[in-house]
From TrEMBL:
GO terms for cellular component: cytoplasm; membrane. GO terms for molecular function: lipid kinase activity; phosphotransferase activity, alcohol group as acceptor. This is DAGKc domain-containing protein. It holds the Pfam family DAGK_cat. One of its GO terms (biological process) is sphingosine biosynthetic process.
Length: 537
């Protein structure tokens, strides 16, 4: 894809390959204009552009524009068709670094002998705009959470996203969520044969509900495998879009969805008490859960409340005691980096050979396995099975488990996370680590190098059980603890917090196990997140 290695998907590719082009790639539309299929982009060469622009040139006061060519990366091309002899191209035009809008190119082919060539040329443009295995004209069920983030989801959808989906001729069906849990109910009833994609105009709460709704269908495995879950970032937490669309801009995310490749995603089966559900993003006990869920009274701070919440608790050396039992693959950071690098290289090789497959697993889709896989390690209330390594952690500070890399726009906590490697990445940090180190960690998170701190225990994990306890406060420190809680926004909080995909669950033991490739998402790259790996080892 044109933008695979580039932050800005709308760059004009340098050297788009107009020299030495095969005549089959050139469409002469009139005496002065040609459209050429370059290496990465459509090249519009139009002598007329010069004159047209000159006409609005404020009586010659502005310097004459001489630009007669422009390049539209194939990634930006949303649709192309020919109607009689009129060639119509819809594309996403950048409007600054973090947004785009629909624009059009229209030309009449004047030479009537070119009918067959024109048709072939337009087909070839569409093939480049949607290289295999990208599906065209996706059937998208859009769910809008009118209260997500700053309550702008409806407006964002109408102004920024809907026109792009329409220009790409996607089939769209829109529904607003009316209450908590509504997205689960909708997803439970979706016909997987009629819907390719559920796009959640929301934060990470709706995708969580949609995965769990699909998991409640009569043939859940099939539904989870067929319907790709995506996010149009409109919430306060937009991690899914950061990881898969590479952006938290709604319009750029819309293009990423239009051009997205179906990619399997591991889901994490969670059991707690009698409940069973799936997590797609993260589980947190302690500082992260508290900074996310326990800072409601600090909403006036905007997104800074998370950082503030973490700072106050870190500086107060807050601990969250728990018993932790883990089935891990490894905690050797060098080996983890190494296997991540290997996965990146394999993926690059697959792209350069053009062997990215569409992830439609025929055996699952055609009447194969349709039920949810049974739990390998039982539930949180069963006796702990063999194979779990148990440790008491009386001074645990941060327990954070991620299935994706980015947890927020500046925070690639889990630098080596992969979408479907059958493992989750687990971070444990002792709450007594020095304040200076804690501050350094906070500032290093954005580089993706948190895992390299010796104080950070980092593991690749298949399953775990955590049983958190409330830390007793020694009588002498009660006042200090109270002030700390108040400063951190948790003045009225009575018990500890657990966040799963950013949503609160009861403060009780839970067990988690990775179910490889159970879910389906759309991604820009296939089997990788939009993160180029940690900056050091
Ligand atoms: N109409 C509605 N009224 C109230 N809650 C809703 C409604 N629609 C969806 N929700 C709930 O809102 C929660 C948060 O949604 P979402 O993740 O989209 O927004 P957010 O702003 O990122 O989240 P948060 O409020 O957790 O910061 C979800 O659990 C969802 O079930």
């Amino acid at each position: 894809m044109a933008d695979m290695d580039d932050e800005n998907p709308f760059r004009d590719p340098a050297g788009s390959g107009v020299e030495d082009v095969d005549p089959i790639n050139v469409l002469t539309v009139d005496r002065n204009a040609t459209l050429t299929l370059g290496t990465d982009a459509l090249i519009v060469l139009d002598e007329g552009l010069k004159h047209r622009r000159a006409a609005s040139n404020l009586c010659g006061l502005l310097p004459q524009l001489s630009k007669t060519t422009r390049a539209v990366p194939f990634y930006n091309v949303l649709w192309a068709e020919v109607d009689d002899f009129e060639v119509i191209i819809h594309y996403a035009q950048p409007t600054g670094k973090k947004a785009c809008k629909v624009a059009y190119i229209n030309y009449n082919v004047t030479d009537k002998s070119l009918r067959t060539h024109t048709k072939r040329w337009v087909d070839a443009l569409m093939d480049r705009a949607y290289p295999a295995p990208t599906k065209r004209r996706k059937r998208i069920k859009v769910l809008i959470n009118p209260f997500g983030g700053k309550g702008q989801a409806q407006k964002i959808w109408t102004r920024e996203v809907e026109p792009l989906f329409a220009a790409a001729k996607c089939e769209v069906d829109v529904e607003k969520t009316a209450y908590r849990g509504h997205a689960t109910e909708i997803a439970e009833k979706i016909d997987p044969n009629q819907v390719d994609v559920v796009a959640c105009a929301s934060g990470d709460g709706l995708p969580h509900e949609v995965f769990n709704g699909l998991a409640k269908q009569t043939h859940p495995r099939r539904a989870l495998r067929k319907v790709a879950v995506t996010q149009i970032p409109c919430g306060s937490g937009n991690a899914m879009s950061m990881n898969l669309n590479g952006t938290d801009s709604p319009s750029l995310a819309a293009v990423a969805i239009i051009k997205g490749i179906r990619s399997p995603l591991d889901l994490v089966a969670i059991t707690q008490g009698g409940n069973r559900f799936y997590s797609f993003l993260s589980q947190a006990v302690g500082i992260i859960a508290e900074s996310d869920l326990g800072t409601e009274s600090l909403r006036w701070m905007g997104s800074f409340r998370f950082t503030w919440g973490i700072l106050v608790r870190m500086l107060g050396k807050t601990v969250y005691p728990a018993e932790l039992a883990v089935v891990a693959e490894t905690d050797d950071k060098r080996a983890i980096h190494e296997s991540f690098r290997h996965a990146v290289e394999e993926h690059r090789a697959a792209i350069s050979k053009g062997v990215l497959h569409d992830s439609d697993d025929a055996s699952l889709l055609e009447g194969g396995e349709t039920e949810l896989p049974s739990l390998k390690y039982g539930t949180a209330t069963d006796p702990l099975p063999a194979g779990f390594q148990t440790q008491d952690k009386p001074t645990l500070g941060n327990f954070y488990v991620g299935n994706m890399c980015w947890m927020s726009p500046d925070a690639p906590f889990f630098a080596t996370a992969l979408p479907s490697d059958g493992r989750v990445d687990m971070i444990n940090i002792d709450g007594r680590c020095s304040r200076i180190t804690a501050l350094r960690m906070l500032t290093e998170v954005e580089k993706g190098t948190l895992m390299d701190f010796p104080e950070v225990h980092y593991q690749k994990v298949f399953a775990y059980r955590i049983s958190p306890r409330t830390a007793p406060t020694p009588p002498k420190r009660r006042l200090r603890a109270k002030i700390g809680r108040w400063l951190g926004g948790a003045g009225r909080q009575k018990e500890g917090l657990i966040a799963i995909d950013g949503e609160r669950v009861p403060f009780e033991p839970f067990q988690a196990e990775v179910v490889p490739a159970l879910g389906m998402v759309l991604s820009k790259r296939g089997a990788m997140y939009e993160f180029d790996g940690p900056k050091s080892t």
